[in-house]
Amino acid sequence: MITVNVNNTAHTFKSPYSLQDLLIKLAISEKGIAVAVNNQIISKSNWKQHQLAEGENILIIRATQGG
Q1: What value, to the nearest 5°, has the Cα angle with vertex 57 and ends 55 and 59?
Q2: What is the pLDDT of residues 46-63, one digit of tens each?
């Protein structure tokens, strides 16, 4: 089991778990989002390969429209 922080909320998962698995588990649409792990942007093409590690801080930012 590993615990990661997603937008300052702790989540515990069985390992190994990829970043893409995390988004699916949390029902977060992949459209219009950016993801950073420990303050480093992870490109969408690498979400499936990036394996989560204990204690990582994940920030998910959703693009919004407006002005």
Answers
A1: 160
A2: 999 999 999 999 999 998
